[in-house]
Design brief:
The complex is a heterodimer of chains A (481) and B (247). In chain A, strand 5 (212-214) and strand 6 (219-224) form a beta hairpin. Chain A is an alpha/beta fold. Chain A has helices at 13-21, 24-46, 51-67, 69-82, 93-107, 118-122, 125-131, 141-148, 165-175, 185-202, 228-234, 254-266, 299-304, 319-323, 327-330, 341-351, 369-373, 380-395, 398-401, 405-417, 420-433, 468-478, and strands spanning 85-90, 111-114, 135-138, 205-208, 212-214, 219-224, 238-244, 248-249, 274-278, 289-295, 443-444, 460-461. A 6-stranded parallel β-sheet of chain A has the order 1-10-7-4-2-3, sandwiched between helices. Chain A is globular, with a radius of gyration of 26 Å. The termini of chain A are far apart. Chain B starts with a strand and ends in an 8-residue tail after the last helix. The longest helix of chain B has 18 residues, at 77-94. By secondary structure, chain B is of the alpha/beta class. Chain B has 2 domains: 2-120, no CATH class; 133-239, Rossmann fold. In chain B, the strands form 2 sheets. A 4-stranded parallel β-sheet of chain B has the order 2-1-3-4, with helices on both faces. The chains are: A alpha/beta (481), B alpha/beta (247). Chains A and B meet through helix 1, helix 15, helix 17, helix 18 and helix 20 of A and helix 1, helix 2, helix 3, helix 4 and helix 8 of B.
Chain lengths: 481, 247
């Protein structure tokens, strides 16, 4: 798992899931971690009498922002620049990487300390830095575990959620050369602290992302639990942040809503322990040079699709991942992207211009648990269905579409359902055709082809001799009540 | 009341017993049941799998069959969710103003079976008898999309002789999800494993729900594992009386 998660080359979700579902330790870790976070979230959400009103406010703020995103982006750029920041625009991941590498090179240093940022994971920044001879040190505890273990993040808030304490201890023991390391949380935190302190004090350049960009002030907000991000934001001379254009909030006071919704949904905390908010640069206080890379990388295409636009309302809390019964079984790596779980299933294929990751919109039973917990009310099942329709349109287009087996079956069934006579005939035909498959107990234990997925672990009761409508018609003549 | 029954395609074909039970309960409560013969399918499978164009004629067929009905009762929560969540948008996008008005007028008269009893008729006790240990599975579409809440359990608690036991992880999906069960068979099976473990832990004789699609899924594993635990639609429990008392 050392190569970065790349949707363009990842196996399909069912293929990846097949392996991961067989990893009982992984499933146990994921189930345990998501159960714990969910219980914490429930406690701090249930205590809020106005939670539903807050969600609605969050939704409306995000909806309004996306409708006027062009205006707010320009306002942000003006205000950030006026405060001494430098704003760069990147159309895609490649441009963002090139800008950041160049900015680091201009500082003259060959190492950076990093604040946890899924956007830097999205653009595989560490790989690009490494190629340019720049060493990146992850400072978020979970990201450090991932980096030292040559692993990949499996959750947007808790990237090492798939690892348990014993596994983390092994990683630290071997990579930090600490043969006698204990396995209590205290031992592990101490080891990480000693490892990181030295970097904080030495490295002069910080690289990270942003939770929110405030258009009204040009300010940038980062929320975190450990304070390691705060170190990276304040100690270096140069600070470089990359953010998707969707991270904008119009007003400073919108943080009032978001900083209630985000921590309660993400980590089950009333407030994040560290909320950093800075505007440009200030002499004698923090970095003397601040760069912000505003990146599109597929987002404006999502913005243009009215039915999918709500995907961009996401504030990356990860609540949908914790509650998802599919994610619960596979963990994040099955999604082949840093954005896993329900939000990943809608975001990733769109960021890939629907050219890759087409199996992800189908990686859901449409149970709706994600929509129920989403702090900004993204109707994820609705977007999943919308994207499935796009996938079907791709698969059925042109000559190739004529040979698509699923489409042929679906169209045949639709044709049957369009006529009562054909439906009745199909019911009779089904009863006859099933007979070679029905066992002596009246059940089907094996199905051919595509339907075989069903009988891997399930039986199917055979079709009864009489349909409801046949019974109804016989009864109509004789039986009354 | 004159109740039109929309049995749904899979209940019609695979679970006629559920339909008979619905008729029995409604008639016992003094209502008249009719069955529009041209009905087939609501289009859920096509719509949810991405075949929106194929679902559209099925919406039109449903409206044509039921627009004159006083109320429509459907013993399947996911099919009702399909209609409520998607028909208005589908009709609006069709550009057919008459169809949009018909959908708007018809949908408030469409009820999931347990919802019809509890919300429309305001009943909790329908005079049923079912002397068995039972656990209730809250199908996702009934729980979240229709907001059935405690309704089905309220009906079950009033059944004479029943021993109702709560299912752990009630709000968790059983892993069916229509074509999901075959497209992602491994993950679906893992989800189902958690659900059947919870069912077995209740030591119930039967697991019930408002949706035979979830039950078919759960039953598939319970039968494969030779557990002897049955699945039975809520209507079939409510149809039982002291006179017959069969499982």
């Amino acid at each position: 798992m050392s190569a970065p998660l790349d949707p363009a080359t990842a196996p399909t979700f069912p293929m990846a899931a097949r392996t991961l579902v067989g990893d009982t330790q992984l499933r146990k870790n994921v189930r345990h971690a998501t159960d714990v976070i969910q219980a914490k979230r429930r406690r701090v959400v249930d205590e809020m009498p106005d939670w539903q009103a807050l969600r609605e406010s969050g939704r409306q703020i995000r909806e309004h922002t996306m409708r006027h995103l062009d205006r707010y982006l320009e306002q942000f750029e003006r205000n950030c620049t006026a405060a001494g920041g430098v704003v760069h625009w990147a159309a895609d991941a490649d441009e963002a990487r090139r800008i950041i590498v160049r900015l680091v090179q201009q500082t003259g240093s060959d190492e950076v300390i990093k604040i946890k940022s899924m956007t830097t994971e999205e653009i595989q920044l560490n790989k690009a830095l490494q190629a340019a001879g720049i060493k990146a040190y992850e400072t978020d505890l979970a990201e450090l575990i991932i980096q030292l273990g040559e692993d990949q993040p499996s959750h947007i808030v808790v990237p090492a959620l798939h690892k348990n304490r014993q596994q983390i201890r092994e990683i630290f023991r071997s990579t930090m050369n600490l043969p006698d390391l204990g396995e209590s949380p205290q031992d592990l935190a101490d080891a990480a602290r000693r490892f990181l302190r030295e970097k904080f004090l030495r490295v002069r350049t910080g690289v990270g992302g942003a939770n929110f960009l405030v258009a009204e002030t040009g300010g940038v907000c980062v929320t975190e639990s450990e304070g390691n991000g705060r170190m990276c934001l304040t100690l270096p001379e140069t600070l470089i942040a990359v953010a998707g254009i969707d991270k904008i909030l119009p007003r400073y006071q919108d943080l009032e809503v978001m900083l209630q919704l985000l921590p309660r949904s993400a980590t089950g905390e009333r407030m994040n322990p560290y909320n950093s908010l800075w505007t440009g640069v200030h002499t004698g206080d923090g970095p003397t040079s601040f760069h912000l890379v505003l990146m599109d990388n597929g987002r404006s295409e999502i913005l243009a699709d009215e039915e999918a636009r709500q995907t961009l309302y996401c504030i990356r809390c990860g609540a949908c991942q914790n509650v998802c019964p599919v994610y619960r079984q596979t963990g994040g790596h099955a999604y082949g992207s840093v954005y896993a779980g329900p939000i990943g299933a809608i975001l990733t294929p769109q960021l890939q211009h629907m050219e890759h990751a087409q199996s992800l919109p189908y990686a859901s039973s449409l149970c709706g648990a994600c929509y129920e917990v989403c702090p900004v009310k993204i109707d994820i099942p609705e977007v999943l269905i919308h994207l499935r329709n796009k996938v079907v349109e791709q698969n059925t287009a042109g000559i190739k579409g004529l040979f698509d087996a699923e489409a042929a079956a679906m169209k045949t069934m639709a044709m049957i359902f369009r006529s009562e006579r054909r439906f009745r005939a199909a019911q009779r035909l089904g009863r006859m055709a099933q007979s070679p498959l029905v066992g002596s107990d009246g059940w089907i234990h094996w199905l051919p082809g595509f339907a075989g997925g069903w009988t891997q672990v399930r039986d199917l009761e055979s079709i009864p001799k009489e349909s409801f409508r046949e019974w109804w018609e016989k009864r109509g003549a004789s039986d009354v009540r | 009341m004159n109740v039109s029954l929309f049995i749904t395609c899979y209940n019609d074909t695979l679970f006629p017993t559920t339909g008979k039970a619905v008729v029995r309960v409604l008639e016992r409560l003094g209502h008249t049941v009719d069955f529009p013969a041209g009905q087939t399918c609501c289009g859920q499978m096509h719509y949810n799998t991405g075949y929106q164009a194929e679902a559209m004629p099925l919406l039109e067929r449903f409206v044509a069959q039921f627009k004159a009905s006083e109320v429509v009762v459907v013993p399947s929560s996911s099919c009702v969710a399909m209609m409520r969540d998607h028909y208005p948008k589908m009709a609006a996008e069709s550009g057919n103003a008459a169809l949009r008005r018909e959908v708007e007028a018809l949908l408030p008269r469409v009820f999931e079976f347990s919802e019809f009893l509890t919300k429309k008729l305001g009943l909790t006790d329908v005079g049923a008898y079912y002397p068995h240990r039972v656990t209730y599975h809250a199908s996702c579409h009934g729980l979240r999309n229709l907001g059935l809440g405690e309704g089905p359990q309220t009906l079950l608690r009033s059944v004479r002789g029943i021993d109702l036991v709560e299912l752990e992880g009630l709000e968790q999906c059983c892993g069916f999800g229509g074509t999901f069960a075959v497209k992602n068979a491994e993950v679906s099976s893992a989800m189902l494993g958690e659900k059947t473990n919870a069912v077995l832990n209740t030591r119930a004789e039967a697991c019930t729900a408002c949706d035979n699609s979830c039950l078919m899924h759960i039953q598939g594993a319970l039968h494969r594992q030779r557990t002897g635990v049955k699945t039975v639609h809520l209507a079939e429990i409510l149809a039982g009386t002291e006179q017959d008392g069969r499982l």
